[in-house]
Design goal:
The complex is a heterodimer of chains A (about 290) and B (about 650). Chain A has about 290 residues and is α/β, with parallel strands linked by helices. Helices cover about 30% and strands about 20% of the residues of chain A. Chain A contains 8 helices and 11 strands. Chain B has helices at about 15-40, 55-65, 75-105, 110-140, 150-175, 185-200, 205-225, 235-245, 280-285, 290-295, 300, 310-320, 340-345, 350-355, 360-375, 380-390, 400-405, 430, 435-450, 465-470, 475-490, 500-510, 525-530, 560-570, 610-620, 630-640, 650-655, and strands at about 325-330, 335, 335-340, 420-425, 455, 495-500, 520, 540, 545-550, 575-580, 625, 645-650, 655. The longest helix of chain B is centred in the N-terminal third of the chain and has 32 residues, at about 110-140. Classes of the chains: A alpha/beta (about 290), B alpha/beta (about 650).
Amino acid sequence: MRIFVCVKPLGAKAAPEITKNSVAQGVVGQFLTINPPDRSALEQALLLKRQLDNVEVIVISLGPSNAREILEICIKMGADKAVHLECEDTKLDAYAVAKELSKKIKQEIFDLVLCGSTSVDWNGFQLAGILAHLLDVPQITSVSEMEMQKSNRILHASRKLKRGARQIVECNLPAVLAVESVIQAPRYISVHTRIKQFLSEPLLETVGVDCQAISSESLVELVEIGPRRPRTKKTIVPEQNMSFQDKMKFIKSGGVSSKKNDVLKGNVSDISHSILDYLEKENLLK
Amino acid sequence: MRVAYEEFWQIPQWTQQIFYVAAAVSSLSLVIGIVSQILKWQKCRGSSVWQWSGLLEKFLVYIVGHKKIRRKKPEGIIHALMFLGFTGLFIATSILAVETYVIKSGLLENWRYLTFSFFADIVGIVFLTGTCIALYRRLKYGKKEDELRPEAITVLSVLIVIGLTGFLAESLRIAGMGLPLHESWSVMGYLIALVIGAAHVAPGQLESGHLVLWGTHAFFSLGMIAVIPYTKLFHMVVSPANILLSPLPEQALTVLPLMKNLEQQQEIGAYHAVDIAWKDAMEGNACTNCRRCEEHCPAFLTGKSLSPRTILQGLRTAVNSGNDLLNGQLVNSDGVIAIDAVWSCTTCGSCVEQCPVSDSPLKQIMSLRVGLTSRGYVPAIAAKALEGLQSVGNPWEFEPVKRYDWANKFRLQDIPDEEIEVIYWLGCGVGYDNRIQEIAAATMGILTKAGVKYKTLADLEVCCGDPARRMGEEALFQSLARQNQQNLAKYSNKVILTHCPHCYHVLKNEYALLGLEINVVHHSQFIMELIDDNKVCLQEPWEQKVIYHDPCYLGRHNKEYSNPRQVIESAPNHKLTLLEFEENGDGSFCCGAGGGQLWLESEMGERINYHRFDQAEEKQPDVIATACPYCKIMMETACSFRGSKIKVKDISELLEIS
């Protein structure tokens, strides 16, 4: 079974705030991350690889030259091969990226394409859908758990709904799945993994792409990234002369004491009478 | 009658021949056992660190002198009796062998024979006393799954049988010789012989009785020697060897060896059983299950899944039986050591401090952690702290410039670099927690008032690397160290002052491994120096009872117990009364924050800091004083959760200085 995982590299996490002085040599400050949902997708693929026989995991990324380091890390973490579509433009939108990825993926045999639900810098949530359309395969979004059925051509994907509910969607392969989270949190990428020698050179394929042509495919243009404007939150301040435990209880309860709830029992007409009585008693009826 | 040793008294030739055959078989079994165990150890691929220095001291003080074993009373004293008895009897038997096979005659005659007889009987009595008390205690206090297991009882009983049959055979011989007066130097044998003599047994029966008992004694003795490598008696061979080949106990905690050339290695750390070094495999066998480590381990005592002893026993099982090393949901394998146990350690060093055979469960746990972390199997919250270290250089993920923001009110003048005497290393906590800022503020106040010319490194500091190294991120630690090395290079002739024992330990001991020698001093030492040189003018504080909590990294790891106490006691007119914990000094109980625990939420059992706080409350102090920012945070959290009025202060905050 061949699984393609699409990853997007993100740049150094806190680059603007680190002063020039503190980024001398060394790893600190040059922290390349993989987009966290893509990281979950990779972990999901590796999980399937551990569980099933004969699974090949191929990581694919469209990005500038620093994406290569991310792909090396993916191979060191257990992926079988990697493909680097080298393009220096970082302002490509999901359509352009999906078009290029689909061109490459269509040339190969694939059973499953995994990607993250979204990338944390653009937050578009579009890649999976466009990719699925271009590849002409079904898609499932916001997947949290995957299970292959016996025939290896049918997949059950779990999606998380509100308040602990789960939805299981059945899908024929090949398909595109957008992964939201994984049952086992993605492993930490240690510094040793980053710095150890990359011995699997032949497994990383670099493909040059026509950057200009792709850029012209973009349908969405990034105009501006403004600063965050968090709203002030209102909290209830506990009294000063309360003890620490009481203060904690107060804050945790949101400032209201829990009232005992009445649960009405009986058939429908009894319950409606009780409700009407209650509303009259509390003077809620006009 | 000659006053001399008579070998094989009245033992017929055929018995002697059986004896020699049995002795050969027994020795062969011993040698084969030892060699096959060594071969199993040698399957381990890691690189061993053998410490050959100080052999004489290790031998005299820790093996013969039983210094660490005697710390636990009465078990230590009882073992000392058994050890002295057994060694004495071994020496006696060797002398007999030399007399019989080498010198052939003349050695054990006259006064030499009498002294020898006395010596042999005395050590025999010591041996029997020790073993009998030991068996009694084992039967009375032992637990079914452990001390009362058949092997344990059998081995001890066999030793007692050997001792008893030895004396009985000797007394039968003395009675059979007709109770000659010179044999009264064999005190015990002679006494029993007197009793036998009073029973008027016929000489023929004495001789046959002697033969039977001699045979029994030989059987059990040779049998014991044969099974040494296969039973708990193996510790007699391995444990002294381990003591001789490990670092001296005073230096056991200084520093974990550095891993070199990390880029060239595809896999580091102990993940499979063969990754450990063969010295570490030997440590597994040297462990005698004495449980001194468990009785002082803060994690074990508060109900976590960690037991230092189980780690060592796990290594031993994995090496000898070929099991997997680790087990846990994350690693998907079914080994002998639980991952939760590995992540519960606070690296306090109590286990190393207590271990009588110079084992280091701490070192093994660190190797296991390196194995786990380098492969990414870190708990999620710890991963966040490590990623913070990778991205911004501190585990709380705040921007480095903020490390200095809070100190603006100090308005440090611009002193030219040549005049600076002291660089104040702030550490990571100050930017994040105002309780740690209080420590730094107090220390800076003292420095200013004493007229010391100092400056801080502000945003040039990155984390010293302690959380990284303790959580097993060796490569990240080396990267951070190299970065600090560059920034500290131009201050190599100045004194680096720090208030944090973790930074102190790393800068003093671990940076030296990477070739960086730093002259670092802890603020308790520096303040005491200022007080001794009368550079500060101490005022009388309020009268308070102060209990001092030894930080693990200042106390056990760096042997600094006196300076912080002297700082407390230097208050004028003894206004600060110094109280001590039950467990203080090198037996001090950890606060629970070390070893990266501040970023690893342990769900099981009681919180370590609450346990320590309860110990403090028993003494009813007004203030808990400590010399470490982590200890201060932990004690203060415990204090507010218990709703107590006790204050928690760093020693620099206790002093009133004008």
